[in-house]
Amino acid sequence: MGVEGCTKCIKYLLFFFNFIFWLTGGVILGVALWLRHDPKTSNLLELEFEGAQAPSTFYISVHILIAVGAVMMVVGFLGCYGAIQESQCLLGTFFACLVILFACEVAAGIWGFMHKDTVSKEMINFYDSVYDKGMTDGLSMDKNKEQAAATVLKVFHETLSCCGKGQGTAILTSITDGLGITDICPKNQLQTSCHKRIEELFSDKIYLIGIAALVVAVIMIFEMIFSMVLCCGIRNSPVY
Predict the structure, then answer these.
(1) Fewer CB near the terminus (10 Å): N or C of the chain?
(2) Is residue 200 part of a domain?
(3) Residue 17, SS3?
(4) pLDDT, tens digit, for every residue of 150-176?
């Protein structure tokens, strides 16, 4: 025999939330792997120019998300098994894991909120340095350096469907491209600022990570409450 009454209801509620937690961990792991291998971000973050690599801050948060998803699946399974077996040891271990995960998530959330614009700013600075170098070398007729910059810039422009740092630079580049001095921007993409495209690309993905973290935090709070109630119910049950 096991627990009865309200405690038995808590047991199945905990199992249900743990199953959702396990599924959520799988979804987060899948989303994180998609973010890691998304063609748009991969094309930009793997760029290199004159020995300088594109900023990798975004990948750091994605790798953390991959680790969190994998740990959530393990912890979710532990919670499901502990609830069904009515094991105080497993439930206690499960609760401790949840507390650690929740603390890490809060810390990561605070860090992410404080640095939410860092990824976009770093990528914009990298783009600007390559763009300025490409235009300078193009105007100075240094074809070798211009070609190296143009290769990197074309990845930006074709991936994001943009050109230049703004309207003014787009018009300037269209003139230099037309005169054959540079070969940087794709055709018919002169009206959209690459600064705007970069911000949109990474802001959307940061918000996606934030929503996932919020959903997980809510589920974890319910699980911590249910696991403690069930553990106390098992301890006070007359059948043990």
Answers:
(1) N
(2) no
(3) helix
(4) 778 878 888 888 877 776 676 677 676
